[in-house]
Design a protein that fits this description.
- It is a single chain.
- The relative contact order is 0.10.
- About 75% of the residues lie in helices and about 0% in strands.
- It has two domains: about 55 residues, Arc Repressor Mutant, subunit A (Orthogonal Bundle), CATH 1.10.10; about 140 residues, Tetracycline Repressor, domain 2.
- By secondary structure, the protein is mostly helical.
């Protein structure tokens, strides 16, 4: 173990190596298979290293969740930048980005959706969750033509968008649709279907209210 530990310190950031090892375990085998000891083994460090850097299992998982949320936000921003200035096009792009990320990383999505994670009192985690929520609310406010409240339950528009985006991704990940499509092809096939669903969402937003 000593040579492995030395190698781990030399090839890069030890904390990041542990996070990447944890990501690998969860994405390939599931959250139930994650242990601090296995993350340390895959990172090539002593089994006590994760506790030294992250405190406990929750601390390491929290850092992975922060990075996952950041990746989701970055993907959404990239999709929205490509969509241009039209508010509805930007909202559609934001929805497609979330759907794509959730389908490509279902087990990371599961980790980030757990109440014990989203409610965790960690400043970095709460900051990126807030950033993601504010981005969604700001985009939807532009589409709605008025400022929406930040609470999800306060706006039917927000609830509709969440139901469409999260519901569609869940149908794919739960095998209710596209179950016979090979894994490598599923994200692209899902995007085609999601484009149509997001088009219906656009019609709902543009429809005049009674």
């Amino acid at each position: 173990m000593k040579p492995q530990q030395k190698s781990a310190y030399h090839h890069g950031d030890l904390k990041e190596a542990l996070v990447e090892a944890t990501r690998e375990i969860i994405e390939s085998e599931g959250l139930d298979q994650f242990t601090m000891r296995e993350s340390a083994r895959r990172a090539g460090v002593s089994h006590g290293a994760p506790a030294h850097h992250f405190g406990d299992k929750t601390g390491l998982l929290t850092e992975l969740a922060v990075q996952s949320f950041e990746a989701r936000v970055a993907q959404s921003e990239a999709y929205m930048a490509e969509a241009g200035d039209d508010p509805m096009a930007r909202l559609r792009a934001c929805g497609l980005a979330h759907i794509d990320y959730t389908i490509r990383h279902p087990r990371l999505h599961e980790l980030c959706s757990r109440p014990d994670m989203t409610n965790r009192d960690d400043p970095h985690l709460q900051a990126v969750i807030t950033r993601m929520s504010e981005m969604l609310i700001a985009t939807m406010s532009e589409v709605a033509g008025h400022e929406l409240k930040p609470e999800k339950e306060a706006n039917p528009e927000t609830l509709l968008a969440l139901v469409v985006v999260h519901g569609f991704a869940a149908l794919v990940n739960d095998g209710m649709i596209l179950a016979d499509v090979p894994d490598a092809e599923r994200p692209a096939r899902a995007r085609v279907l999601a484009e149509g669903v997001m088009g219906l969402l656009e019609k709902a937003f543009r429809a005049p209210r009674e």
